[in-house]
Amino acid sequence: MKYFALYCLILVTPALADVEKARLAERSGDFQTAFDEYKLDAEEGDAEAQAALAMFYAEGIIVKRDRNIANQWTIKAAKQGNKEGQYNLGLAYQLGLGNLPISPIIAFEWFLSAAKLGEMNAQYETAVAYQYGRGTTRNFEQSRHWYLMAAEQNHSRAQNNLAVLYGEGLGVNTDRTQAMKWLIKAADNKNEEALYSLGLIHHQGVGVKKDFKKAAEYFEYAFIGGKSAAAEYLSQYYYLGTGARKNKIEAMKWLMLATELKSTATTGMLHPDTQTRLLQNKRFLKDELSENEMTRAKRAKEKYINDNLQ
Fold first, then answer.
1. Which domains does the chain possess?
2. Can you give the pTM of this predicted structure?
């Protein structure tokens, strides 16, 4: 299943001429040369090189992984105004990486600083901080502002969350048109939450004509993206023959996929109550299928995994 990490450190690509050799080496896969060149420039005070060198230590590329040394170089880059360094330092304080303590307040300060410099991931984190009051006072208007800044840079999670704010009227007047606009943009960028939401919208007929076939398409894309709960609707469609041709073997396939695979998406895991319900449905359906049909369902599941989730 496609992996969506909640947090990711930015791999920086310095643009200054004196680190061009390092950039070219890194792009060609010559990480030793890239490391050596970044290190020389970082020691001479180049902020872009410092941020890049920090990543080598953070990820253990060429050198032994060392979060403390990574933090040292990240701090140097951040203090010189490097936006990638500031964002990564925000993450380090948010997660308590290496020798840095967990501090939502300090994390927010660095996220905000990087956000003002245009770093879209920092803009997203700043919006989240304002939305939930993490390290700062809760402020939906500011949250909407920073989600919009990131969304306009094509950040899919920001687009999805911006749609939620418009849909629920948080920090802005409720606007279904804007909510749908940003939800579709997020879905176009394969955001699993947006795809799942669009599936629900067409399943329930919220503001659109009820369309189980279209809902099924969105639910399947959402599942491939890591939203396990989408499989529940697909199993229902095949079992009942709504949105798809009635097929109990396909219904069992989706129940197996939902309950036997562990999602790697941030919000993709099944709620315990949903897991219990689907396991119960699987047991009931198993009683309706022959041994041969169960074998076919298992083969269909494995084929789907090989074709779509590898």
1. 6-102 (1.25.40.10), 126-189 (1.25.40.10), 221-310 (no CATH)
2. 0.86
Cβ(126)–Cβ(112) below 8 Å: yes
Instruction: Please choose, from the candidates 52, 45, 109, the residue with its C-alpha nearest in 3D space to the C-alpha of residue 80.
Output: 45
The SS3 assignment for 265 reads: strand
CB-based contacts of 304: which residues, under 8 Å, 6+ apart? 253, 257
Q: Give the model confidence (pLDDT) of 273-296 as tens digits.
A: 888 999 999 999 999 999 999 999
Dump pLDDT digits (tens) for 219-233: 999 999 999 999 999
**Cα dihedral 141, 143, 146, 151 sign:** negative
Beta bridge partners of 265: 4
* Contact residues for 127 (Cβ-Cβ < 8 A; gap 6+): 142, 143, 144, 145, 146, 147, 149, 150, 158, 161
Look at residues 80, 95, 8 and name the one whose alpha carbon lies nearest to residue 42: 80
